[in-house]
Structures are given as structure tokens and as C-alpha cells.
Amino acid sequence: MTEFGPVMLLAVLLVPLGSAALLALFQDDRVTGRLNALASLVTFLASTSLFFARPEPGPFLIVDDVNVVFIVLNTFVAFTTSVFSASYIAHELETGRLTPVYLRFYHAMYQTLMFAMNLALLSNNVGLMWVAIELATLTTVLMVGLYRTPAALEAAWKYFILGSVGIALALFGTILVYLAARSVVGEGLDAMAWNVLVKRAPSFDPHLLNLAFAFLLLGYGTKVGLVPLHAWLPDAHAEGPTPISAVLSGLLLNVALFAVLRFKMVMSANPGALAPGPLMVTLGLLSVLFAAFMLYRRHDIKRMFAYSSIEHMGVITFAFGMGGPLANFAGLLHMIFHSLTKSAIFFSVGHIAQIKGTQTMADIRGLTVTHPVLGWGLVLGVMTIVGLPPMGIFMSEFLIISSTFARQPALAVALALGLLLTLGALLWRLNGLAFGESLGKDAPSDASFIPMFAHLGLVLAAGIFLPPALVSWFQYVAGLLG
Amino acid sequence: MDRLALDVAHLFAGGLVLVSFMLLYQDRMFGLLNIFALHALVVSLSVAWQAHIQNAPHLYITAAIALVVKAIVIPVALHRIIVRLGIHRTIETVGGIGQTMLAGIGLVALSILVMLPITAEAGTLTREDLAFSLSVILLGLLMMISRRNAVSQIIGFMSIENGLILAATAAKGMPLVVEISVAFSIIIALIVVGIFLFRIRERFDTMDVHALERFRGGQP
Predict the structure, then answer these.
(1) Domain region containing A430
(2) Are B173 and A161 in contact (CB < 8 Å)?
(3) Is B212 close to A154, i.e. CB distance below 8 A?
(4) Contacts 24+ apart (CB under 8 A), B96-101
(5) In a domain, A459, yes or no
């Protein structure tokens, strides 16, 4: 088994990279769509094997208890999104919104993005992780601008400017972490390796770590979409192709938050350093409340769910900021449920926008009447994302609020207020979208609904019964997060 | 460390901050490009000097990249793009030059006040270079928010990168990963210059980012 692990580890990285090169060469859209899905499936299977055969950490790559669940989640959502993407993109070609040349570019970029995200999750080196997140930013900028409409260009430009400034700040923070580690660990690769950093963190200079964390939180926090650094997020979600919105919300935000979590572990291992919790709680709560109010004023369906992503990233950041075994446990669960649910919602929204030919919510009505499967899928997705029982998100949000209430009642009340406001906004909009008389075009849809219902089914199943083995494992990771 | 080596390193790092200020008050497109080329030249000299005094030959590669790509290729390419698109007019700024310069001075003071006390153990060269590089980064940010023009925003971003290179070389012995990341940043700059400028031009007939504001979708 020891030789099996490293091979699979490399497969998780090299399959996306190789297929990116391959997909750039192929012309035929039917072949490329399937090849994209196949490559994503192989990557997913390779990543699940990391559960069983875990390679030894090297100077650049590591598989440990913290990242293994994220890597499996990442490759799983990447696979289901690629299935959705195949039917979505075929429709875009038919309507002429995309030309075959752009399609090749799109598929190559999709796999490059997967490579970058997997690398960011697997890297055992703060510098390598930074490079991977930068590569992910670059590829998503290009994909957001894919349609080349003025609005898409504005979104891509805004995302590029804010994203690269965030990335620049994060690099400065990374350099400061290296400086803090250098005087203890010595020069060289060890001073940038996660497993060494966490182990030796107690003797780092706390002042350097404090400053570094401020830069890292702001830098990677921009990528997470925390208020007030969120300005790029709604535009990027609304104007890019919908599979990319699903991947952005479901995966890339998680990857950036994962980077913050890694650094938080270093911070909390150092007794003299500033507690990272209050900063994260503040940013998280601000995001939840801000997004909750902004949801009422949205007119574009993808933009609305982008604000819902800001809200949920706020909830997760809040949970990890509170810290402690229970809140961390709930935060981890929420991260996973949000990824699955939000990408499922974007799958349905993508099909809806294609059927109706618009993203403006005022022009979409009565979906459950004309397209029962799609309409009820959206209803189910929105019910899940607002946190109604018995879905998984209800459980994780309930855990976050109840564990906060025991320690900081005022914060729990504020968070609950934000969640209720969101619930109101989304249900209000859902009522208009899903019910009433049908409005607008109602072309039949030949889309595949399996990815959407697979995700929602998983969240439902987890909300009803979470296997004890999984629970104890999550509790263990939550303990590691401090 | 010998006194002269330290002084020369200071000269270059301080010079970089000075050139950052020159970028702040440039209001003509070609002037901006020339000053940016100077900025990149100073950073490459600074990195080369660090390579010399730290006995770290791999840093010469970083210096060479900064010199060739940022001091020569990108300015020349941007120059040609600007000529071809016929946009060599003055740059619109947000707020007056005087206010921007004052804000810049404030940022430099801030970064010195922040960096010097906390890096007391890190050695003179590292701590002063870090203070300077944070100044360059903050000045680059200031430039990006005080300009409406896409070209000057790209240049502002690249000057931030120069500040980061200075910081990375000042952190003695930082592994090669940084050089890889610098190469990545250069690719970014190239892609952005290549793709975005042409796309923006294609659609709007203007390079003024302000014009993009009209297309904020989804709002009534």
C-alpha cells in the first residue's frame, strides 16, 4: 500500500493537468464534454483512494486529516459540475453564445482550474499554495470574461484587480510567516512546510505572526468574498458561464478559506500571538448581515445566489472564528453542505436561465408548472440553503448558533437575525420564481438532473443520519483546528 | 555585514520607494511607462545586489527576469499597444496630485512604524528592506485606486509585484518557490496586457475603466 499512495497523489494533480493539454487540442464538442467529465471522474476516484492509502508528507505535498476531506469534496463537485457543464455548454453552442474555439479554451481552463485547486489543497508549502491559488484566480478571471459581453468584461476586470491585490497581500503575509519561522526552523524548505510550521509555531515571534495573519486574512479573505472585500464576487458569479459560478461558489471560496484555516492553526498554536478568532468572527458576522440585507435588492437570479454565497462563507468564517470543538465541527459540516447545495442550485439556475433566456427574476415565473422537475429541484435547493429542517444545513447552522449562544449570546442573536433575514429574502423570491402563472419562454429542457439531485440527496441524507464514523472523524479534525 | 554592502542595499531599496512616488504623480501615459521601466530596473539592481551579498546565485535569475521582462518587454509592448490604439492622452486621476502625494507620505510613515518594531530580531538589512517594500506595496495600491485608467492600474499592480520581490529577496534564504511565483506573476501581467486591453478596446473604444461602470449588470 505504501507505493500506491504517492501514485494516486500524483494522479490527482496530473490527470487534470494532462487533460487540460489534451482538451486544448480537441475540436469536437461532444468528445470534449465527455472527456472533461471522464477526466474529472478519474481524478475523483484517485482522490478517494487517498482516504485509504495515505502517502508520507513530502517537502511540497501533504495529505493529512485536515485536507483529505476537502480534496475529496473538491474532486466530487468538480466531477458532477463537469457532467452538468457538458449539457450546459452543448446548449450554449447551439444558441451561438460560444464558438468552438472558445469551447476548447473553456475546457482546458476548467481542468487547469481543477489542477490549481487540488494543488492548493494538497500543498505542504505555503509558497506553493500561494502559487496554486494565484493560478486558480488567473484561470477563473479568464473564464468569467468568456462571453466577452461588456458586463462580463467588467466582472472579469473587477475580479482580476481585486483578486490580484488580495493575492499580493497574501504573498506579503506568506513572506512574513517565513521570516517568523526562519529564526526557529532555519533557512530552507522546512520553514515553509505546514507540518513543520504547526509543530514549531509555539516558539515563533508572535508579533511577526500577528502582522502576517492580518495580511493573510485580508488577502485570502478577498478570495473568500468576505465583506468588505466581496465586491468582485456577485459580478463574477453573474456574468461567467454557470458551471463556473457553481465551481466558484462551491469550491474556490472553500479553497481560499482552507488557506486561512491553515494559517489559523499556526496562529492558535502560538501562545503569544493575537487570537485570530475575534477578527474572523467580526468579518463573518459582517458578511452575513450585509449579504442578508443586500439579498432583498437583487434582480438577477445568479447575483442573488452569489450574495447567498457571501452569507454562507460569512457563517463558516464566523464558526471557525468562534473556535472550539463544537463550532469547528459545525463549520466543517457547513462548508461541505454549502458546497454541495450551492453548486446544485447553480445547476438548476443554469438550466432555468437557458430555458427562459434571461437571468432577470421578474421575467421568470411559475417554474413548477412548466418544468416540474427543474422547478421543484430549485425549490428543494432553496429550502436547503436557507436551512430548513431536515436538511444538513439546518443541523450545521443550529449547531453554530447553539454553541455560540452558550458563550456569546449577543453574537448568536445577531447571527440568527442574519439567517432569518436571508430566509425571508430567498423564500420571497422563490415564491415568485417557482409558483404562479408561467411567464416567458418555456422551451423543453433535455438537461440531466442527476448532478443536482445527487448533491441535494447527499445533503438530505447527511441531515437525517450522519454515520458515526464520519462524526468521530470530523470531531477529530475539529479538535486539530483549535 | 560590511557597511558598504548595507549602504548600497539601502540605496536601491530607498530608490525604489522614490520611484514609486514618481509613478504617483505621472499624468502622461508614456511618462508612466518610462518611470515604470525605471522602477523595474531599480528592483532588478536591488535583487542583483542582494544576490551578491547573500551569496545566492539563484537570485540573479530573478533579477534578470525583472530586468528583461518588466523593464524592457512589458513597457515596450504597452507602448506599442498605446500607440496602436491611439490613447496616449493624459491620465484621469481621482483627487488631486497633491493629496495623493500626501497620502503616499502617510503610507510610507505607516509602513516604517509598523515594520521596524516587530522585526527587531531579523537583522538590519531585512527589517529596513521589509519596511521599504511594504511602502512600495502600499504606494502601488494607492496608485491603483487613484487612477481610472486600465493601463495605469496594470502598472500599479506590477509595481506592487516589484515591492513583493524586494520583500522576498530581503527574507534571506527563502526557497525557490518565490522565484516560481514571480514567474507566475509575469505571466499574469502578460496575459492581462494581451487579452484585457484588446478586449476592452474592442468593446468600448476607450481604455478608461470608468466607462465600465455603466455596465454593472443586474441593477434596475
Answers:
(1) 277-482
(2) no
(3) yes
(4) B97/B24, B97/B25, B97/B27, B100/B24, B100/B25, B100/B142, B100/B146, B101/B21, B101/B24, B101/B25
(5) yes
